[in-house]
Amino acid sequence: MVEIQFEKLLEQFGEVGFVETLSHSIAKIKGLPEVRMGEMVMFESGQVGQVMALDSEMVEVLVLSKSAVKVGARVVRVGRTMTVSVGEQLLAHTLDALGRPIWGEPIDASKFEFRPIEMVPSGIVYRKKISKQMSTGVVLVDLMIPLGMGQRELVIGDRKTGKSNLLLQAAVYQARLGRICVYAAIAKKKSEIKRIEAFLQEKGVWGNSVVVATSAQDSAGEIFLCPYTAMSIAEYFRDKGRDVLVIFDDMTSHAQFYRELSLISGRFPGRDSYPGDIFHIHSRLLERGGNFLVDGKEASITCLPIAETVQGDITGYIQTNLMSMTDGHIFFDGELFFKGRRPAINPFVSVTRVGHQTQTSLAREAGRVLLDLLSGYERTQSFLKFGAELGESSRQILTMGDRVLAFFDQPTSKIVPYSMQLVLLAMLVSGMWNGKNLNKLLEAAEKDNTIMEAVDGMVESSDSMNKLIDQVRKSSEKLLPHLS
Amino acid sequence: MISENTQEILNGIILKSEAVDWLRELDVLDQSVYKTDATNFVQTLEKEVNSKLSLAIMNELKIKGDGIEARAEALREIRDGVNSLPEIKLEVAVDLPTAMIKRISKWLKENVAPGIVLDITENEEIMAGVRITYLGRYVDLSAEKNWTEVWKQVTSELVTKGETSYGGNSV
């Protein structure tokens, strides 16, 4: 089959190349006089590659396969750029960087359409202002660092501080609301990929999810393409009118593999040995996210890239690049993690540039209230170090701060609906609740629909915290029994 | 730049295997350039390398002189000259006789490029004809390419004839 296809292409184009040198994933080919940049090529043995560079003598090809290509092997043009097959059938599958299922049921390819992996981002005419909030189900994020549908928010922090867990919670919550989640696992261990898949299946949202995964054992070319494939799949669903959440886990690994490819291909190293186009590699990906007009309606691609830091240093090259090309960042603080805070997000260092414009006046007031409380708490905490005696008001601040932190303490398995967050905050601020036993209320809300109906009603009929607190006082009998 | 006489000698290379031999011999000479004087170098030329290459080098040394740098430069330029000879790949079904190879080479040197070298490989599967690759272009003039169509035509003719001859019974 492969031979027939190879011979057909050979006859169709009348051009052939020969592999002169091969170094890891980069093959240098002599021949193919009319090949174009970014074009797909096929080797005699069936592997495919993508043209990365052209010069007068040689064509540099990124080999997209782990199996060895032989020196002297023939290469033929395929005549198109790298494409990935997309369709509704991709949902509930784990794919490789070329869009093929890695394991599980084979996919019926008859209804596929093909989308290029590399696309020029849409212009301003096709974009709309971000106006809808994207809830993650994580209290600390939704109340203090709100996100919008179509926003690109960087999630940054040291390794093993809970970044992926936060994003999985966000993915589950969004998938339950009917949105599509595309998770790009870049150079992850196979056990981690399986864990992500199992988590999504366990939460019952696998039917709205696609995982595009490459392991560290895959070729550098496939690892490089992984996030672009994920984005192309997301764009397919966006063009069908669906809102999509795309998670890139993680971009620092992606940059490292691209650095490896560039150094092997002889490109001049720049800062930290990264090539000069490392910014463009990521920016052209993230610019494809946003809030768009599709057939007169809005459809968004929200991007949540992850960046890893070392010892909390956010001034690294890749980290600052990503921060400059996103609409804010959520910072996972290692110190907070070791103090036991989950999620270990530092709300004072985290930023959201467009999230606040999506909030109602109630939500904005709630965020301000929380910020005031936490700021006061941190300031008062600092006086404790001097062993000073605290007055009544300081002790009240500390008590309230402890309650807020208990409120923010949220295990990975728990997702709090947004309206519930606002109501609970109102109860906390008004002294009706001490911030504990949240799980009991969530379990009760899952069983009894009237609880959520009441909560939604309270939030919809309030445009300020005071009104919400009044509403909550009137209806507290529904909620308080579950919180005691 | 190599002299015209040397270029003419290089243009006399017919097969790629010859060019590869020249490069190997140049490698041997490279190792002796800085270790021998002019007289010993000439003796090495006479004993270790083929006569054409030896003649080419001597031509260059006449122009450049016989100092160490001149020798190194001559070898380098001849190596570049050999590497820049255009190459044409021919995939044929049978082992070609020498006379035919020379004829093909002569025709190509006159009509395509003067220094063109042939890289001939045998592949029985093509049955007859040739597959040509030159400067990245590929042309398939083999019998194997049309074999399926030919075979279909032949079998359908046989079947038709059989039906006519045997009163409608298929062969």
Automatic annotation (TrEMBL), chain A:
Gene3D superfamilies: 2.40.30.20, ATP synthase alpha/beta chain, C-terminal domain, P-loop containing nucleotide triphosphate hydrolases. Residues 366-453 form the ATP synthase alpha subunit C-terminal domain. One of its GO terms (cellular component) is proton-transporting ATP synthase complex. GO terms for molecular function: ADP binding; ATP binding; proton-transporting ATP synthase activity, rotational mechanism. It comes from Candidatus Amesbacteria bacterium RIFOXYB1_FULL_44_23. The keyword Transcription regulation does not apply. This is ATPase F1/V1/A1 complex alpha/beta subunit nucleotide-binding domain-containing protein. Keywords: ATP synthesis, ATP-binding, CF(1), Hydrogen ion transport, Ion transport, Membrane, Nucleotide-binding, Translocase, Transport. The keyword DNA repair does not apply. InterPro entries: ATP_synth_asu-like_sf, ATP_synth_asu_C, ATP_synth_asu_C_sf, ATP_synth_F1_asu, ATPase_F1/V1/A1_a/bsu_N_sf, ATPase_F1/V1/A1_a/bsu_nucl-bd, P-loop_NTPase. It is found in: Membrane. Residues 137-351 form the ATPase F1/V1/A1 complex alpha/beta subunit nucleotide-binding domain. Belongs to the ATPase alpha/beta chains family. It comes from the Bacteria. Its main location: membrane. F-type ATPases have 2 components, CF(1) - the catalytic core - and CF(0) - the membrane proton channel. CF(1) has five subunits: alpha(3), beta(3), gamma(1), delta(1), epsilon(1). CF(0) has four main subunits: a(1), b(1), b'(1) and c(9-12).
From TrEMBL, chain B:
This is F-type ATPase subunit delta.
